[in-house]
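Reopening closed ticket. The problem is back. First fold of the pair:
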Amino acid sequence: YFFDFAYSPVYSTDNKIIGVSVVATDVTSHVRSEKELVASELRFKELILNSDYSTAIYKGENFIIELANDKMLRTWGKDKSVIGKRLIDALPELEGQPFIELLQNVYRTGIPYESTEDRADLVVDGKLQTFYYNFTYKPIRDANGEIYAILNMAVNVTDLVKSRETLKENAEMLKLSEAKYKQLSEAMPQIIWTTTADGKFTYFNEKFSLHLGVSKEEKETADFSSLIHPDDFPQVAAAWYHAGENKCDFEVEYRALNHQTGAYTWLLTRAVPDLDADGNIKQWIGSSTDINEFKNLQTQKDTFLGMASHELKTPLTSMKIYAQVLERALTKAGDEKNAEFARKMDEQVVKLTSLIGDLLDVTKINSGKIQLNETHFELSQLMNEVVEEQQLSSRHKITIESEKVANVFADRNRIGQVMSNLISNAVKYSPDADEVLVSTKIVNENVEFSVTDFGIGMPADKKDKVFEQYYRVNGGDENHFPGLGLGLYIAAEIIERSNGKIWVNSELGKGSTFCFSLALSN
């Protein structure tokens, strides 16, 4: 228990001290209340100092900083030396900002103030910086209910605000970019479109509607497959599947249907995948170019070449006969000089006949009329026959490096044509060498035929183009060699239509090895 004691003397009638008066007052409850108050204040102080929020107490009307935890000190960019100072003296940069006035209003009215994502400019690390806070000002009252201090709690939300501002700016930029993209796509002569990863249209320009008879309102239901000619659909589907699986560019030619007119138009379509951060396809961005006129001109060209080639074959056959008859007559007459001229004329007729044959093959390939008469035959035997025939007219030694007995199912004449073409090319493009190597070998379930020369070779970036129609490597020594650039294209088409593969390994200045493979047959 706790008591307050009052001791006073007791006097007699003659004013002498005759005793002591002791008055004891029980103050146990008062002392305990004071101790509990002190303990409560300590707990409150401890709570503030360890709070997860930036917290401070400002005392009196001058807002003396009575208490501030470490988080609040870091928020201000200050140390503990500001404790005991007026808030405006500790943070002079608050002058002109609304915070002191807000504190005065809370102190005067007793109404708490709460703000979200409010801006505060504070001197931190020696420079004035902008921050954003969620904060509260709450009055603290004494036992009599009088306001004597204000509790300030704050959370720094600067990163959140700036991130949202950045997202907003990015969204505005994206919206502007999309508007510019659409404006540009509408001005382009090509068909421009975008689809989802699985091919559903999300946008197409006016050219799409004009060429294919599909309105923009129908883009949600437009079926890409219904636009493609049935004969072209397997090729388009295969190219689309390959591009989707490998996340690579998509390119294909096909005939597309105009839903309004019912007519088909040749299109060259290219698309690139737009990938997300995980490498998955978000959408396809594509263009389609009307190549109908080009295809018509190509058809006319092929028709003309076919007709011209047929018309030239008859007189060339006659010329060859005349040259051979003339050669024999001159040889019999002992005129060797002119007989040699006749032989050279015959050789040139053979070359011209070969070129015309190539043109005829190209027209057949382009029109889809080339036929393969497939039979079972032994490839090495055919190789020996071709080498023997080529050796008769070649100054190079054509060496069979290795051979394996291998039966295949293909067009024997056409495969012989491919072999002959590859050997002729090897001889033609190795003028300073004197040997060409040929071989066959078994690789898994296939047989590979190869021709190696030691000639001019080709750069790596040209290897994939040599099998294209009319392609000839430009520059340097290549321009000295005759030809139309059709032989390798025809060879590649024959091998591809025989379900085989053809390729080349080459190094500039060191020669080339052309190869093809066919499946073994039982």
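Second fold of the pair, where the issue appears:
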Amino acid sequence: ANAIRWAADRGADVINVSLEVAASPELEAAVRHAWSKGAIVVAAAGNNGSIEPAFPAAYEEAIAVAASNEQDGLAVLSNHGDWIDIAAPGFRIYAEALDGNYDVETGTSPAAAHVSGVAALLYGIAEDSNDNGMVNDEVREALETSARPLDIAGTGSGLVDACAAVQLLLA
């Protein structure tokens, strides 16, 4: 909770949280605080294959990210359910390792990183259409509205689509 508040108070637009912890009033307040400061908390849904809400992803102000597989289906390990907002690639994702080589990662953490990157891109072009002084609501709406629907329950709006989201904001 302290890290989310710290980032929001220092002007972060996108805060990626790739962990699953017990729900707490302090954590929920931190996610709400970030939203009130104009930031989006993008949170990994968890890797238990469960439909049970995971936190902080399941908080209303967070964007809960499930992981898709190579066939744009739900990755077997990905948590899912009606609390999920969007899905992103999370199966066999190449990531740079500490030793400079590459590792292959699977899970909702790389999926959340993918959505965080798209959200950051959208922050660069979003306009404050409702004059509230922030664009986090426009960015969230663009992410979810432009997602490619999946025929799988529990994957939210569907698969994140960076190109469609950019086109939506530029229209």
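Update: turned out to be a display glitch only; the data is intact. The domain at 2-170 is CATH 3.40.50.200 (Rossmann fold). The chain has five helices and six strands. Please close again.
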